[in-house]
Amino acid sequence: MLKKTGWISFVSVLAFFIMLFYFGLYKYLLAGNSASFVLEDLRHVAMGHRDATLVVLGDSTAAEGFRPNRFNREAIGEKAVNLGVPGGWLFTFHKSHRLAKKYMPGVKKVVLFLGPDNFRAGGDRLRSDLEYNKTSLDLADADLLWDYSGSFKELCKDLFLFTFRPALFSRDMRDLVENPAGRARRFTENIKWFNRKVSDDDPLWEDTRDYSVCGTGDPEDLPARIDSLIRDGNRAEAARYKEMYDGYMIRKGDKRPNPFFVKGLLKLLGELSSQYNKVYLLNAPVFSGFGKVYSPQYLQETEIISKAMASLFPNVIFIEIPQGFRDNCRNFMDVVHVNKTGAQKLTDFIVNAVAASGIKKMVLKDYGPRGIKAGQAFNIQEHGESAIWANTENATASAVLVLNGVPLKSVAFPDGCLVTAIVPAELVKRPGKYDLQLMDRRSNMKSNKLKLTVQK
Amino acid sequence: MPFDSVEFLFFFCAIFALYMAVGLQGFRKALLLFGSYVFYISWNPGFSLLLVYSTLMSFVLARVISGAGASVRRYILAFAIALALLPLFYFKYWEFISANLNVLIPAGRFKLPHTGVLLPVGISFFTFNVLGYLIDCFRGKVKPERNLLDYGLYVAFFPYLVAGPIVRAYEFLPQLKAKREFNPQFLWSGMALVLMGLFKKLVLSDNLSVYVNRFYSGPGGFSGAELLLGAYAFTVQIYCDFSGYTDMARGLAYLLGYELPVNFNLPYLAKNPREFWQRWHISLSSWLRDYVYIPLGGSRRGPARTYTNLFAVMLICGLWHGASWHFIAWGAYYGVLLVLYRMYRKAKPVPARAASGLAQKSKDFLSVLLMFHLSVAGWIIFKADTLGGALLYLKGILFRTDLGSISLLFKASYLPLAAILLIFGLYNLLNLRVNLKEAVLRQRFNPYISTAFLFLVIAMAVFKVDEKIQFIYFRF
Questions:
Q1: Which of A198, A335, A434, B466 qualifies as a FRET site for A413, CA 20 to 30 Å off?
Q2: Which conformational region is residue A258 in: left (phi greater than 0), alpha (psi within -120 to 50 degrees), or beta?
Q3: B10, A156: Cβ pair inside 8 Å?
Q4: Is the pLDDT of residue B320 over 70?
């Protein structure tokens, strides 16, 4: 009897540990500020937004730099969910995309943010990714170890961690042992949190921080400012500068792009481009004012890599971020993370890129009237203006006719086959042949050109 | 590939799987021999030649000794011993000898060259195995081995190759000859010992080393009470490290169907120095007794010679651990203790009938406490890199301990250290009533013990130190 009880208790304890470490039960024990908590939360959110059409992947530059609610308002017909994970790397991006595929079958587009820290060597990034994903790893993820392990020796270690899960939880469990009361409180909160109902209409999380690096000066001088703020009792601002300074110090130093990352990125983009209609790739912008952190050469190299990667796949589009954005201190809350203002602008760039790539190529087939004479009105409209018409294909609602580089006040018909425009008299004052073209105002996409002849 | 590494886990799983799959005894032994060389090559490929040299040299010379006439056998033995010790002398002792002799040689004269070579891992252990075999063949205690495969496996068997225990040929060779059947008891004992060994190393020893290194690297910055705590920590650390490794070695051997000798028997419960050496690193102390102490005459040639022999043996013991004056001093320290104890026993012999009762129990307890602290003092000499360092540490304990410094022990940062020492102390106290480890090993597939092992495994995952800490006895 005693032995039977013993075996029952053994099997029960074993089953409990298996459920805890292999079937996600540990998520209820996670600390609120752990990356694993963020990932589990994202999984939960993804399950509640099954109608998403676009998913954003990346690290904290994505998590904080993309505003899904703004995107969903501006990008007509699209719905985005942000699956950016702070600290994440290739394995996490890959796993998040699989999560999207599983829970959001309608997703046809993906945006991949590449932070400047993703490119460089240093640290066991796969190991930290495995730790982040520890509560949601499954058997299918084993093949990713093969792709993202640095060497055979590393692969053996990673396989061991993957198989013997308690080893992945060691840091978290030590923290649990050191702070049992706090975690016990967290336990009940987590049960409520992970069982809450998420609906399609619920707004998605967005970072609200809007302070900027303007007026920071040289980050090396920040410790003195932090001390002074603490002495004055301004702890909130001191904490903000401390976070900025810590981020600066972690990232400072000479860097080179890591060939191993390039290989992994190629693999990831290959999978993304085969699974989605469109993949948008962007290098998260870096504030140019803190030049000691990421040298211009390093940033240039990473951009070359990204552009080269994008060019290898027909449906991967590289989104350029203008230099003006990078130079503007008002957009950034530290060297790599944009604030609310910057995130809104960054999201708008993405909106435009998505919109542009959704546009079919516009074609300018024909125009009229013919026989326009220099200095004379033609096709006179209600208020005496001259007007032209153009037969088109795929003209967008925001398309305009452009005559000799000057956009005309235009009306695009809904069927996309006709665009009319008012022609100012000064444009046809002189005889000659002038370029006529269609242009989409939102994306700047242009059609072919025709020659409009103005006779003597 | 240390036993607590992931690489070793994969290696052993592969070897074990193949071992169980292969039916023929010969193939199994060949597999183990191959695996043993792969294991040794993983440390340094070049040094595997040393293993080949020791194996072939002793295999051949043992047969020559056995077949030689009585008048020349001892000379061949002496020659064989010299050949066996040659690599040990070159790799381990030449640097020490040359450095010390060069100090004596006047400037401008020829100086002895330095080699600067790495110490091959496990050289002290397998050299002693080979020496023991040669001497046993000379004594007729064991027949010279005719099967090179068996003998090669005896020398290179990976569970004990790099850090012991030192195994006698007459204990292990018969096991290699016998047919190995699957033994569930061995399976249980093997798994239990490996788990217990890993726990001692990963949880107890490695976590203690974090504190020990702090105390020993800068003793001037700590109070006497803290230094004493550090000394206790190292005393427990070295035991957990070494006995943990031995447990794993024995466990792995059990899993493969072989039994290795016990190497530790609760040494900190010893009541005197003699008993300490009957409980600590038993394979080495018994080896020194059988192959050095007894040939020197043991205790058969009067007290003066006995004391000399004891002291000499302990000096050799110290030297075996390392070519350094502080190891020699450590050996000499125990030599003195053993001699003094011998003198004490001569003056006050042990009564024929052991006394019982509270008075005797109290006396025994005090003896254990005293011997424990004597061993703590010895470990201070052992751990410090130099004699000067050891003296500095001891001075710190003796002259910087006061009430104020004792209060420093109650810092929150010392809680984990105190917890480990407390657990260790309780474990030893419990063992006064029953030998817990042997009790566990006898309980085949006991569910309660299995449940406890589950918690041990989780504890290893939780409390494992992030940085890689090498086994202490790998240096010897």
A1: A434
A2: beta
A3: yes
A4: yes
Q: At what angle do helices B325-347 and B302-321 cross, to 10 degrees?
A: 150
d(CA B126, CA B133): 11
Please report which helix (H) or strand (E) contains residue A9, including its range: helix A2-22
The question of whether B114 is a catalytic residue gets the answer no
Pair type for strands A406-407 and A409-412: unpaired
Question: B-contacting residues of A 336-395, CB under 8 Å?
Answer: none
Whether residue B404 has pLDDT greater than 80: no
In B, which residues are within 8 Å of A13 by CB distance? 451, 454-455
| B112, pLDDT greater than 80 | no
Q: Taking CB atoms and an 8 Å limit, are B462 and A7 in contact across chains?
A: no
Q: Order the strands of the A316-318 sheet from edge to edge.
A: A80-82, A54-57, A109-114, A278-283, A316-318
- Phi/psi of residue A455, nearest 5 degrees: -90, 170
**Residue from the list A3, A13, A170 with its beta carbon closest to the beta carbon of B462:** A170
Burial class of residue A39 (count of CB atoms within 10 Å of its CB; 0-12, 13-18, 19+):
buried
Confidence bin at A122 (pLDDT 50/70/90) = low
Contact B454 A10 (CB under 8 A): yes
Comparison of pLDDT for B173 and B473, the residue scoring more: B173
Query: For A21-59, how does the pLDDT look when each residue is reduced to its tens digit (9 = 90+)?
Result: 999 899 999 988 888 898 888 888 888 888 889 999 999
Whether the CB of A19 is below 8 Å from some CB of chain B: the reply is: no
- Tell me if the pTM is above 0.90: no
Q: What's the confidence (pLDDT) of residue B405?
A: 63
Q: Which of A10, A156, A173 sits opposite B461 (nearest CB)?
A: A173
Are the beta carbons of B448 and A164 separated by less than 8 Å? Answer: no
Size of interface A-B (CB pairs under 8 A): 46
DSSP state of B263: -
Interface confidence, given as ipTM, is: 0.78
Contacts of A169 in chain B (CB under 8 A): 461
